[in-house]
Structures are given as structure tokens and as C-alpha cells.
Amino acid sequence: MIAVFKRELKSYFNTPIGFVILAVFTFFGGMFFSVLYESGSPTVESIISVMSSIVVFITPFITMRLLSEDRRQKVDQVLLTAPVKISSIVMGKFLAAFALYSAGFIPTLIFQFIVATYVSLNWAIYFYALLGVLLLGAVMISIGEFLSSLTESPVVAAALTFAVFLVVMLFGSFVETSNNALLSGINTAISFVERFSNFISGVFSFNDVFYMLSLTGVFMFLTICSVNKRRWA
Amino acid sequence: MIEVSSLSKRYGNFLAVDDVSFSIKKGEVVGFLGPNGAGKSTIMNIVTGYLSLTQGKVTVDGYDILEEPEQAKRRIGYLPEIPPLYIDMTVNEYLGFVYDLKKVKFPKKPHIDEILRLVKIDNVKDKLISKLSKGYRQRVGIAQALVGNPDVLILDEPTVGLDPKQIIEIRNLISRLGQNHTVIVSSHILSEIQAVCERVIIINHGKIVADSTPEELSKELSNDYSIVVRVGGTEEEITKILKGVKDVESVNCLGQKESGTLDFVVTPKAGADIRKDVSERLAARGKHIIMLVSNQLSLEQVFMRLTYEADVAAVVAEQNKAKGEGK
Predict the structure, then answer these.
(1) Are strands B182-187 and B29-33 parallel, antiparallel or unpaired?
(2) Which residues in chain B have their CB less than 8 angstroms from residue A77's CB?
(3) What is the rounded distance in angstroms from the CA atom of residue A75 to the CA atom of residue A24?
(4) Which of A10, A17, A78, A227 to mutate to test the interface with B (most CBs of B within 10 A)?
(5) Would you call A229 an interface residue with chain B, using a CB distance cutoff of 8 Å?
(6) Handedness of CA A177, A181, A183, A189 (dihedral sign)
(7) Distance in angstroms (rounded) separating the CA atoms of residues B7 and B10
(8) Cβ of A14 and B88 within 8 Å?
(9) How many CB pairs under 8 A join A and B?
(10) Do A83 and B97 touch (CB under 8 A)?
(11) pLDDT in tens, B127-185
């Protein structure tokens, strides 16, 4: 698992994609921070909240190559014939993507320190928001990894992932206007984006954490099944 | 070392491997021979655990590939048809990755350096794999299979797409590896198998059609122990002498292949070995034998006979049947 993790993390920086992703995170984070700083209310939670709207666009680029590229280049043969469990391969790749994603939020820690030099802060609220956005990332990456296991084309994987995120979000706004009990029930079940807003409000709920973790687990499991399934095809 | 029993693999309605059984002993160098699409790669993919099987059982060193895949895979180094390489890594990085992936216990640097030297890629070890030529990539693929020094090496068409010099190099490498590994090599090039393997398994339409040494195979398939003799003299003269030899059934002149000599096919009665008598008799009559070889089929001919002729026979039978029904 560590070998796969290391290789995958390094591969982000063998091409410009890793640098671009970190640059985009830093750029938008910095921009939001400077705007809020100017307006005089720089709460870092709200920066994280705004940044969460761009992760929808970035995550598909992080996950698109995870399993599809290996299959396209036939490198999956070296992974699957090595004495390693499929779950370790899937997990190693997931962790690499998650590490890159998490690194994108390091600047928010710097913002928090800057603000803390002026006013006294409730760090718990910041860390809870950070936890929220990381869990949001875990869910999105696991979905992206699953979708990249279904195709040999990274582009198709990215498009599928983005489409899924979009549908989930649009479904949420559609349900709001429809007032249907069944639909809103479905929405509560699938809308990880709305769950995320609970983390920003600063009210700790074990429910929300558990929801995000289990959704991640479900998609990791589906990914393992999907990789395994192809061997039996 | 490798036991395969009643192995079948079905893709939808297509039966890619049909009830295949064989067993390979430790230290054997075995060639899988068959036309493209015969099922060679599928069998290799199953033995290495890349694909699952529909029916049957595969064990490597006693470990079942489905029940204890990690133990079984630990004993196998695999070079698939297309070398599985991360082209954005250097050769050294890639082999280091494979080393970590396979959880090898030997000290890392000496082990990788030894492999680099063995397959002669130490001069490109810091190059990106994407910059390497096909021959070098193939060698990196073999190097990858050697990481962890597994007992069994499975090489799927290791010389495809290489130039003649590279082919000879890879072939020599395989022969060298065969001295202390169990090796399975697949190929549709016959001379290659003949050069490196002590045993050939011929596969066609997912079935084993022959399993023997290259020599045995050609002997079995040639109809008898007939020999070809090249000798100086006239046709009548020599034919007369040869017909006088004990146990000779028939003599056929093939004409002149080398100036001043004639070639004859001498067929003995079933099971008799006439080589000694033929040479003695000709020498006694003052006729010099320039060449005496057994009239065995070359592996090429064996292969054609086992694969294509069988196909043709099947088609003819089918047509005859259709004709019969038409009437």
C-alpha cells in the first residue's frame, strides 16, 4: 500500500497536474482571504466554505487517472500480479489523492495564524470546518476513484465524476423547490455537499462525521469490487 | 512447481481456454506455442493471478492461486505481452517501486543493481522510461519480473517487436535465466522456442494439442524413422546398394542438392533403425556419405500440421457434412 501511495503521489508531480492543482487551491484561497480581509471579517471557516465550491471542479482532475490510466497503459498487470491485496492498491491510490487534496488546504492554516495575531479565535470551529472539508474531499475522491475504475479513459472518468457531483448538487436545489417528502428524503441520503454545510456552522455532530466516513467506505468497497469484477469477466 | 488441472476460461459465450491441464517441474524451461488468439496469454494471465478462472485449479509451489494468491504470486515474476511500465518514472525509480510493491526482503540497492547488470540496462537506469526504445523497455519489463528473485518466470512473447540483434540478446538472457529458474515462455515464433526450451506445449483454440520436447515432437509426427542420405554416385547405383540393406522398405531419390552428390530418402520397415547399416554398406562399396540426417519434421512443420491442418480438416469435414445434408 505504501509503495502504491508513494508512486501515485509522486506521479502528480511528474506532470504539471499536481502543481496546477495546488496553485489553483492557493490562488482561490488567497483571493477569498484577501477579499474578506479587506471587508474586515476574515473568518477562515467562511473561506473554507467558499473553497468547497471549487473542489467540485478540482477533484475530478485529482481522481481521473487513478485507476483508468493504469488500465490504459496495462500497468495494472504489475499491480494485480504482485503479492498485494486489491484493497491495498485501491487504498494506496485513495490516500495519495487525499494527501494532494489535503495539501491544498494548508494555506488556510496560514490565514488562520494571520487572523489570530489580530483577534482571539475559536480554533475548534476552524478545525471542525477543516475536518468537514477533508471529509468532503474523502467522499468525492472515493467517488472519483470508483468512476475511474470503470473506464480506461481518464477524460471519461473526469467527465463522469463531474457529472455525478453536478447531479447531486442540482438535485438538492431541485428538491428545495419541489416540497416532496420522498425526494427530500433521497436528497438527505445522497447530498454530501449539504452535509458539509453542517460542518461550517460549527455544531459538532457525530452523525455527520459518520455519514461522510461511511459514504467514503461504500465507494472504496465498490471500487474494490469493480477492479475484482473485471478479473472475473 | 506449477500445476494446472482442467483449467477453463470463458468470456461470455467464447471459450478461450478449454479444459487445459499440465504440470511444470522445478527448473524446467517450457515454451507455449500457438497461433495468435490461441489462449496462451489467457493461460499465463490466469496462472499469474491477473485473471480469474471459470473452472479448474491452478497451484504454484503448492499454493492455490485463488485461495492463497499472495503466496502464489510471491513466487512468480511476470512479463505480460505489453511490458507494464510507468513511463513517467526512471528505470531505477520504477524498479524501486516494484521492489516495494513486492515487499522484497533482500537489501534494496544491491538487488536492483544486480538485476540492472543482468539484463544490461545499467547504462539507462536514470533515464525516463518514456524515452527508452522498445528493446530497452522490453528489458525493463524483464527486469521488473526478476525483482524479488522469484522461482518462476512467466514471459509472454518476450521478443515481439525487437530487431534480430535484440532477439538474440533476449534469447540468451532467457537461456541464462533458465539455469536457475522455472521459465515459461510463450511465442508464435518457432525457432525461438526451439532455441531456449526443453519442452514445448502447443496450444490451439484454447486446447493443448501437443506436449513434448521439440525433438520428440518432430519425431512423433514424422511418420517413421526415415533418413536422408547425401552420397556421391549415380542414382541407379546407389538405389541398388540401399535397397540391399536389411530392413529397408523404400528408397527415393530427391535429386542433386550439392554438386557431385545425390540426396536419397531411405524409409525403413516400421520401428527399425537403419542408420548404422546404411553407412556401413555404402562405405563398403566405396561410396562416401557426405550427410546423413533423420528425416524429421522441423518444428515449423509440426506446428503447421498440428494447428492449421487440423483447422482445414475441420472445415472440410464441416463442408462434407453440409453437402451430405444438402442431398
Answers:
(1) parallel
(2) 45, 50, 78, 80, 84
(3) 30
(4) A78
(5) no
(6) positive
(7) 10
(8) yes
(9) 67
(10) no
(11) 999 999 888 899 999 999 999 999 999 999 888 777 888 888 888 888 888 888 999 99
> Considering the entire predicted model, what is its pTM?
0.82
A positions 21-40 inside 8 Å of B (CB): none
C-beta separation of B36 from B188 below 8 A: yes
Sheet containing B262-268: give its strands across. Answer: B248-255, B262-268, B227-231, B289-294
The residue assigned the cell 522469484 is B150
Which cell goes with B265? Answer: 530418402
Distance from CA of B136 to the nearest CA of A (A): 17
Chain A residues whose CB is inside 8 A of the B51 CB are 231
Helix (H, G, I), strand (E, B) or coil at B31: strand
pLDDT at B224 over 70: no
> Could you tell me the three cell numbers for A202?
460549527
Please give the pLDDT value at position A140: 94
| CA–CA separation, A62 and A93 (whole Å) | 11
pLDDT, tens digit, 9 for 90 and up, residues B249-276: 888 888 888 888 888 888 888 777 788 8
Say how far apart CA B96 and CA B108 lie, in whole Å.
8
Here the ipTM equals: 0.88
DSSP class per residue in A45-113: HHHHHHHHHHHHHHHHHHHTTTTHHHHHTTTHHHHHTSS--HHHHHHHHHHHHHHHHHHTTHHHHHHHH
How much is the mean pLDDT over chain A? 89
pLDDT at B299: 61
Distance, in angstroms, between A74 CA and closest chain B CA? 5
- Name B212's Cβ contacts closer than 8 Å, sequence gap at least 6: B199, B200, B220
Assess whether pLDDT exceeds 70 at residue B211: yes
Of all residues in chain A, the one with the smallest CA distance to B128 is A14
* Residue whose C-alpha cell is 486489491: A86
Residue B316 has pLDDT above 80, yes or no: no
Largest interatomic CA distance in chain B: 76
B16 neighbourhood in chain A, CB within 8 Å: none
> Cell match 519489463: residue?
B141
Residue B136 grid cell: 530497452
Give residue-wise pLDDT tens across range B59-75.
999 999 989 999 999 99
Output the CA torsion sign for B93, B99, B103, B106.
negative
- Residue whose entry in the numeric block shows the C-alpha cell 480506461: A152
The CA-atom distances, in angstroms, between B322 and each of A134, B313, B315, B317, B327 are: 69, 14, 10, 9, 9
In this complex, the residue of A3, A11, A83 whose CB is nearest that of residue B88 is A11
Q: Is A16 on the interface with B (CB under 8 A)?
A: no
Pairing relation of β-strands B29-33 and B199-204?
A: parallel
**CB of B272 closer than 8 Å to CB of B225:** yes
Tell me which residue of A153, A189, A100 sits closest to A161, measured CA to CA.
Answer: A153
Inter-chain residue contact A73 with B84, CB threshold 8 Å: yes
Instruction: Report CB contact under 8 Å: A83, B102.
Output: yes
